[in-house]
């Protein structure tokens, strides 16, 4: 252990030979919000192209990724799907806030409580140094359930404006998957990230050496 | 099994050896005995009142209603629905009787495994016992104790395969990939219920930290795959958190037992404590809450090694 372990965490910058092929930039996006708002559904829908038949409670964090092409550049989008229950985020999920490039906040349009929790989630992010300087977007999920909407688009838009975030309303269960906006949501984030300075975007573990 | 008093050691050995307790019929008889449950004095079925004004009601309903995968394929929807209602009642009843315990997502995965084998009233008795012993640390107000238990994983790996250990440290993968394994006794991640049951036989007859030793054997079993992966948090987390469904459970159970004997918790306690920053307090919290004799004793011993002043500060 002594010889190889002594270099510890800093040695990750030396593992160049095991990195992905050059020029595949990775955008790491964390998806957060209350339990049951549909975070797993959204991330699955984006990465697998369809919505899952049944999802279960996420315990800890789950990870999904998809390779996309933006303006001729191949980019890997990594989505970190987190547990909604408060006890997990307090001591478990912190590790996964590191090196995050963007944040997607999700609430359920049929559950006013999940909307009221948003300030707490925003605060949570600020504590992990993810404030207004990183792209953040707000997603109101389950808008297919028209009859039980509790959070109006106006209310949500006002909130989004106050916090300088774009708002999307979507349904990860929309049968017509071309009109569910899920694609647009994550691609908007990816475009925004791509238009920023490249150095900021390279994962710190790779020393920004591309 | 019919002897009185019952020979727990023999039952424990049977649960740990090849094939475990084999059938649900045997499990129904042995599981309660392993937890020292009085089968003549089972709790009553909870009434409707248990659902009223319960702080965890919404979260429990949400998790249970999404737990369809845990029920046998082909079970009629009505039967499953009835069991899900029982599941909600069982969980809320145990939480109501133990106000010091806090619900966590995954508790429902443990409960469903018990319910499907032993039925509602025995499941309440077993869950109550497990919650106060094996699962106790996961049910604190925070997950700090759980995090501490996860800290045992890396020291075990380091003992057996330092190269693998160092690779995982370099990748900064953390231990959250094993979180659901630990707190649901693998019930959340295994799709074949017979494997879950086999592991439950093993864990019910073992030290509360045994799930961490099994987690270590699974990582060690996949050592080649891991080392070939990109040395990156996301990649390694992704690889490890997706558990292969065809694992050689009998072999892994033997290996976990061997690891436990070779590197008992008392030996690893200090290294585990060093993994976290607030080590003293966390160690002590764990020592006080892991109520199975040997565990608490081992930790107390370790704490005593550091001197009684450490312990005194806590009271």
What characteristics describe this protein?
heterodimer; A: 210 residues; alpha/beta; Rossmann fold; six-stranded mixed β-sheet; 8 helices; 6 strands; disordered N terminus; disordered C terminus; B: 315 residues; mainly alpha; Helicase, Ruva Protein, domain 3; Cyclin A, domain 1; 19 helices; 63% helix; 0% strand; globular; membrane (chain B); transmembrane helix (chain B); Rab-GAP_TBC_sf (chain B); GTPase activator activity (chain B); TBC1 domain family member 20 (chain B)
What does this molecule look like?
- Chain A: Its cofactor is Mg(2+).
- Chain A: It catalyses: GTP + H2O = GDP + phosphate + H(+).
- The complex is a heterodimer of chains A (210) and B (315).
- Chain A has 210 residues and is α/β, with parallel strands linked by helices.
- Chain A has one domain: P-loop containing nucleotide triphosphate hydrolases (Rossmann fold, 3-Layer(aba) Sandwich), CATH 3.40.50.
- In chain A, 30% of the residues lie in helices and 21% in strands.
- Chain A has a six-stranded mixed beta sheet with strand order 2-3-1-4-5-6, sandwiched between helices.
- In chain A, a hairpin with a 2-residue loop joins strand 2 and strand 3.
- The radius of gyration of chain A is 18 Å and the shape is globular.
- The two termini of chain A are 31 Å apart.
- The relative contact order of chain A is 0.18.
- The N terminus and C terminus of chain A are likely disordered.
- By secondary structure, chain B is mainly α.
- Chain B is 63% helix and 0% strand.
- Chain B has 19 helices and no strands.
- In chain B, helix 3 packs antiparallel against helix 4 and helix 7 packs across helix 17.
- The longest helix of chain B is centred in the N-terminal third of the chain and has 21 residues.
- Chain B is globular, with a radius of gyration of 20 Å.
- Chain B starts with 7 loop residues before the first helix and ends with a helix.
- The relative contact order of chain B is 0.11.
- The C terminus of chain B is likely disordered.
- Chains A and B meet through strand 2 and helix 3 of A and helix 3, helix 7, helix 9, helix 10 and helix 14 of B.
């Amino acid at each position: 252990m002594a010889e190889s372990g002594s270099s510890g965490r800093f040695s990750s910058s030396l593992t160049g030979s095991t990195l992905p092929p050059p020029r595949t930039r990775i955008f790491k996006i964390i998806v957060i919000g209350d339990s049951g708002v549909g975070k797993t559904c959204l991330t699955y829908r984006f990465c697998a192209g369809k919505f899952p038949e049944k999802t279960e409670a996420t315990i800890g964090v789950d990870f999904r990724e998809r390779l996309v092409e933006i303006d001729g550049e191949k980019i890997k989008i990594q989505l970190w799907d987190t547990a909604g229950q408060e006890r997990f985020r307090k001591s478990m999920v912190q590790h996964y806030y590191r090196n995050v490039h963007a944040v997607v906040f999700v609430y359920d349009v049929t559950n006013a409580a999940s909307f009221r929790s948003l300030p707490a989630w925003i605060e949570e992010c600020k504590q992990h140094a993810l404030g207004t300087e990183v792209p953040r977007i707000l997603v109101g999920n389950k808008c297919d359930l028209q009859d039980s909407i509790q959070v109006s688009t106006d209310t949500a838009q006002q909130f989004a404006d106050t916090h300088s975030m774009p708002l999307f309303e979507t349904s990860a269960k929309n049968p017509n998957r071309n009109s569910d906006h899920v694609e647009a949501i994550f691609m908007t984030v990816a475009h925004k990230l791509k238009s920023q300075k490249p150095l900021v975007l390279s994962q710190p573990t790779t020393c920004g050496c591309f | 099994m019919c002897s009185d008093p019952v020979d727990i050691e023999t039952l424990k050995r049977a649960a740990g050896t090849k094939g475990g307790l084999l059938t649900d019929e045997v499990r129904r008889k042995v599981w309660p005995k392993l937890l020292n449950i009085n089968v003549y004095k089972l709790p009553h079925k909870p009434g409707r009142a248990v659902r009223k004004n319960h702080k965890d009601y919404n979260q429990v309903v949400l998790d249970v209603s999404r737990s369809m995968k845990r029920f046998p394929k082909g079970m009629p929807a009505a039967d499953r629905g009835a069991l899900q209602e029982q599941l909600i009642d069982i969980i809320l009843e145990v939480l109501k009787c133990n106000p010091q315990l806090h619900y966590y997502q995954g508790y429902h995965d443990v409960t469903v495994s018990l319910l499907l084998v032993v039925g509602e009233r025995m499941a309440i008795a077993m869950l109550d016992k497990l919650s106060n012993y094996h699962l106790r640390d996961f049910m604190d107000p925070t997950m700090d104790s759980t995090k501490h238990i996860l800290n045992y994983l890396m020291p075990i790996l380091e003992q057996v395969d330092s190269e693998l250990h160092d690779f995982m440290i370099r990748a900064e993968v953390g231990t959250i990939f094993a979180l659901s394994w630990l707190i649901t006794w693998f019930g959340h991640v295994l799709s074949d219920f017979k494997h879950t049951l086999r592991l439950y036989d093993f864990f019910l007859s073992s030290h509360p930290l045994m799930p961490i030793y099994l987690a270590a054997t699974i990582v060690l079993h996949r050592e080649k795959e891991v080392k070939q992966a990109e040395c990156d948090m996301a990649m390694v987390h992704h690889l490890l958190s997706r558990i292969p469904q065809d694992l050689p459970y009998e072999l892994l159970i033997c290996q976990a037992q061997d690891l436990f004997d070779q590197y008992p918790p008392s030996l690893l306690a200090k290294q585990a404590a060093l993994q976290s920053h607030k080590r003293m307090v966390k160690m002590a919290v764990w020592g006080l809450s892991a109520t199975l004799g040997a565990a608490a004793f081992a930790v107390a011993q370790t704490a005593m090694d550091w001197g009684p002043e450490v312990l005194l500060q806590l009271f």
